[in-house]
Design brief:
The chain is an all-alpha fold. Helix 9 (129-141) runs antiparallel to helix 10. It has helices at 2-7, 12-25, 28-41, 46-58, 62-75, 80-92, 96-108, 114-124, 129-141, 145-158, 165-178. The longest helix has 14 residues, at 12-25.
């Protein structure tokens, strides 16, 4: 990702991936720099704001983290994780009423559906065979067999020949269901 950024500093996803890697590896300075770049390049990126908030919280910059989480929910009102993080931090900072309201919003939001979660992952990583297969399975569970077949076919193209057996099996089951 660093090579890509050397060619084009405006690649938001490259910054995001570096931030996620930094978080996973405990490089909070690197993660913060990456997520700050994400929100600098796109101030309407709710996930970038949320991830920046997570880094700031881990660095014990609680007031700054609250600001990032507040921006995330302002951009995406149904962002459960951001509401949960706000509830936790408001309580930590002694803002009890705000904490209770954030907790109530968190609890009031329904879990994201499996299909929507799979769609989001495929939008983010369109060339990931596992995400394509997960989306296909979610379509099957929703009874959207035509879309499932399309996603299984894409997953087949993205998968090494030796590893395609499971996808062919799943695709065969869909064809059995639709009588094709």
């Amino acid at each position: 990702y660093r090579r890509a950024l050397a060619l084009d500093e405006g690649l938001i996803d490259a910054h995001r991936f570096l931030g996620e890697i930094g978080l996973e590896q405990g490089d909070l300075v690197g993660a913060r720099t990456a997520f700050e770049a994400v929100v600098r390049l796109d101030s309407t990126d709710a996930e970038g704001q949320y991830q920046l908030g997570k880094v700031l919280e881990r660095q014990e910059g609680y007031a700054e983290a609250v600001g990032a989480f507040e921006r995330a929910v302002a951009l995406k009102a149904d962002y459960r994780d951001a509401h949960f993080s706000l509830a936790k931090l408001y309580s930590r900072l002694g803002r009890t009423e705000k904490g209770k309201r954030a907790q109530a919003r968190f609890e009031g939001l329904e879990e994201e559906g499996k299909l929507e979660a799979a769609r989001r992952r495929v939008q983010r990583w369109p060339n990931d065979a596992l995400d394509r297969r997960a989306l296909a399975v979610a379509y099957v569970e929703e009874g959207q067999y035509g879309k499932a077949v399309e996603e299984f076919k894409v997953a087949l193209v993205l998968t090494e020949a030796a590893e395609r057996g499971g996808i062919y099996h799943d695709l065969g089951l869909v064809y059995d269901r639709i009588g094709d």
